Amino acid sequence: MNNEVLKLGADDQSTAASYWDFSAVDNPDFYTSHQGVVQSHPSRQRGPTKTHTFVKHLDFKTSATNELKNNPSLSSPDECARACREGEPPKTCYYHFTLEYYTVLGAACQVCTPNATNTVWSNCQCVLADGVERALLTANRMLPGPSIQVCEGDKVVIDVENHMEGMEVTLHWHGIFQRGSQYYDGVPFVTQCPIQQGNTFRYQWLAGNAGTHFWHAHTGLQKMDGLYGSIVIRQPPSHDPNSHLYDYDLTTHVMLLSDWMHEAAAERFPGRLAS
């Protein structure tokens, strides 16, 4: 994919989270910073005016890159993680999740450290977790997995590619109403057959209910071993009844809590240990 020129409001360009909506940085409703898109409210404090030009390669997996190139109607995760404006046409937001066995503190951690503020994608394939080495399951070698961040009314398209040896999987989009798309709810043997190793399944649903939700594996104990991530569906400030309670809506301000152990979830299956 061609390099994109991004305007970032950060003196240290190495801290840039990666992106965000560079096509509309002059819009008074938001500005860009090294933390991501900041959505502000009218009559409140404006953001920084000093900008830098920085070239950042959007590092998608080859199959995801080709899909975006071949279908110009699709928008990338970076383009969809934007400040939402009233009257703006909806986007069709494309994601590609590659699921696989991986390890905490693997070889990649010797050459890079993941950017903790970037929840959408990562060039660094190092998973730190809590610093204790163990096997895990990942989507795109991230923990938590990629964050889906869109605006209310967007269509979300996710290709899930299963590279987990000997395992099948489905993903459930927790909190999404799935009106008219119930067959993409991700319940194995109810709304779909599980995705077998080596296969790819396409989920498609409408981001119709604003709020903070999450996605997770719906097969076995895979959710506890790392297959989960956040979903943030934004509204324009004029539609948000809580908009008066905050000054900025940062795309990087996502806190996702989960149980985490130093062994596989199956080792803690109820009944394994006598009480």
From TrEMBL:
Domain Plastocyanin-like positions: 125-237
One Pfam match: Cu-oxidase_3
Cross-referenced Gene3D superfamilies: Cupredoxins - blue copper proteins (2.60.40.420)
Signal peptide: none
Molecular function as annotated in GO: copper ion binding; oxidoreductase activity
GO terms under biological process: iron ion transport
InterPro entries assigned: Cu-oxidase-like_N, Cu-oxidase_fam, Cupredoxin
Gene Ontology annotations for the cellular component aspect, listed alphabetically: plasma membrane
Alphabetized PANTHER family for the sequence: MULTI-COPPER OXIDASE, STRAW, ISOFORM G
Family that this chain belongs to: Belongs to the multicopper oxidase family.
Protein name: Plastocyanin-like domain-containing protein
